[in-house]
Amino acid sequence: MPFTYDYERPALTVDCVVFGLDDTDLKVALIRRALPPFEDAWALPGGFVQGDETLETAARRELLEETGITDAYLEQLFTFGNPGRDPRGWTVTVAYYALVNLRDHAVKGATDAREAAWFPLDALPDLAFDHADILALAQERLRGKVRYQPVGFELLPEKFTLFQLQRLYEIILGRALDKRNFRGKILEMGILRETGEMQTGVRHRAARLYRFDTRAYQAKTRKGFSFEI
Amino acid sequence: MPFTYDYERPALTVDCVVFGLDDTDLKVALIRRALPPFEDAWALPGGFVQGDETLETAARRELLEETGITDAYLEQLFTFGNPGRDPRGWTVTVAYYALVNLRDHAVKGATDAREAAWFPLDALPDLAFDHADILALAQERLRGKVRYQPVGFELLPEKFTLFQLQRLYEIILGRALDKRNFRGKILEMGILRETGEMQTGVRHRAARLYRFDTRAYQAKTRKGFSFEI
DNA sequence: CCAAAAGTGTTAAAACTACACCCATGA
DNA sequence: TCATGGGTGTAGTTTTAACACTTTTGG
User: Fold this and answer.
1) What is the CATH number of domain A11-148?
2) What is the pTM assigned to this prediction?
3) Is A51–B81 a contact, with Cβ atoms under 8 angstroms apart?
4) Which residues in chain A are contacts of B141 at CB distance < 8 A?
5) Is 60 exceeded by the pLDDT of residue B110?
6) Please, what is the Cα angle at B34 between B28 and B40, to 5 degrees?
7) What is the CATH number of domain B158-222?
8) Bridge-partner residues for B31, per DSSP?
């Protein structure tokens, strides 16, 4: 059943840049395309938006269908609409970026009979369409955002050590941070709560586990506090 | 000549939130709609994107056609695609915000036989579609952006006094700033150049006129400088 | 002479930076 | 016993915030 319009209309897609963090790297989830164009090339998970869903709903749906990821932190990044960005014709894509923790979303992805894998940012394959541009913009946005909003926690498990948090910032910002200064500053903010639990199964002294205290953060934010690393 | 597709496609529009600054207020350019839906209601300037132009090109074209504004600072804001946001059917809009100085773009706008006018942000009329949401988001984005990037200058004439610049920040941020601290900080940055000229036609002591020094800013930025008010 | 903004320094408090050692644990 | 991170305090420096008066100009 075809659709007919008086004027030319674009195809509308969403694409997701999914960041995950492991012990040493920031990684991105990519899928291998099963169909032309760019058949067999790696690409961002994404697909066509349906007329009865919001853009964010479409992004979450595609994320689930193509990588098995649910409940990710998701935020709109930018809309790419250059003529010529898709060889099939006029296609506009609304790009999102997502933050997940790699432990929970470790090896899923083959759900939709498509191959999916995590790639470290410094060893990316060639990407389909203008997905390399989208990814570069997402990385830049993440670097900017992480300093002024507590989004980094989305990349960690619910309970985490201060060292994990520090390493997260070091990886994203690309520079070393001073341990004592970092710990002092972040604890001073009063937006972490001790869980009372300790790390287990590590081959060094066990660290305290903290949790991000959303309520405290929101309360402080209303009183003029602003997060900054 | 109709266009036929296998799947449903959205209509794609751009909308522009154009900010202008006068002596006391931040204002927004609105146009009065000539056609249904929302006939005679005030709305953001904008319109349909064509298949052979970029999104930004479309935004600039609509801005020119509907308000006569050219050469504005323009930046993509957010894409709104909720089903139901347009009573005519599935319509996705890529919103931009623009910064212009009101002196140069004072009373134009009636170009396209449409009524256009500047409204202060605290006395807005009811707006068509979800344009009130778009405008609110643009204002929030501007408030955030202006502190970390030197975009405020786009709202001023090319040559401006330090007092004009300070008032700009006071208006956008909504709080008073200390004169000596502000002047010290901004001059310290080394991104303003004295023009050697003075204000004329004011009924008080004439102030020095400065110009934003793009080259100095870029050079400093490459060396790690980062703008912050 | 009045109103309005121009222009100009200092000081106290707060925030930031750099820096080093002992402790606990599992391999 | 060794490697790995856990955990802790201080001093010097820099940045920020608060604060008031004289000057110039046009009306």
Assistant:
1) 3.90.79.10
2) 0.95
3) no
4) none
5) no
6) 70
7) 1.10.10.10
8) B43, B116
